[in-house]
User: What shape does this take?
Amino acid sequence: MSAGVETTTEQDRPAGWLAAAWYKITGLPFLNTLIAIVLLYAIITFITGDTFNTPQNQITIMRAAAVFLILAVGQTLVMNTGGIDISTGSMVGVVACLIGTGMAAGWIPAILAIPAAILLGALLGAFNGFNVTVLGVPPLLATLGTFVAYRGFAQHYMGANMVSTMPDLIVGIGRNFFLGLPVAVWIALLVAAMGWFLLAKTTYGRWLTAIGSNPRAAEATRINVKAVVASTYVIQGALAGLAALVLMGRLASASSAMGEGLELHIIAAVVLGGTFLFGGRSTMVGTVLGVYLIGMLENGLIQTGAGFFIQRIILGLLIIAAVALQLRRR
Assistant: This one.
């Protein structure tokens, strides 16, 4: 009988192991994104031939997506608490205008432009956090207000003017290569790795998830909900400052139009990656995949001859589809 029991266990073990593995795979929040990447990669490669599936083009996609990824990391933290920040592109514009003109006028040395941009972005994000946590304005409306106000300030400050030259240090951040990849990509990957560590390995990350799941229960466990929520907007702002530097370096210029339209890309990438729009669940790996999916899709559409407005239509539909899938899974 003992032998019979052992035989049964050995027979059941592979099935149990396979079932557990299948359960884990199908439970991945970014599984749909991963499948979409594989399918779209195959389709776009089939349509465009060798022009899409080349190392050089993949580097082009990653370089273009670097700014998206930097901002998406901050957006993931904000959304995990149940918030949202749609002012990210406008913050990029304000930082680009002030830091760009400051460097052009000689007020800000290039080496100090990096911490200055991050600090300025953090201050802009802190204002968002103040409006949400102290004034009690809903995140969507609070950041919609600053989305308009920050862009209006940038346009008033610079008008149609443009800073057309950048110091070599800033240009190097946006255009130079290191170990075969653009420096901007390395910066974005480092930010994503830090975001993953923050979410997955720290008490702060657990606080964010707890707040997003149930703010009242989080308060009952003596989490300072307002301070933690406000901090996510500060981080988002600081990353907007960093993204502005990368964008200024890549374009070797600064203008009030910088960052326009970034909000849609960022929100789409984070939601597609599996972070719940309503808070309580986030995945930094999914955010990275979501950013790559958006970058790959835009690159592929350009190569297939699709215009700018077609890209916007598809991006908007992707956001709707991703939220609809989240609601069904929830």
Observations:
- The chain has one domain: 31-329.
- The radius of gyration is 22 Å.
- Residues 125 and 233 are 5 Å apart (CA to CA).
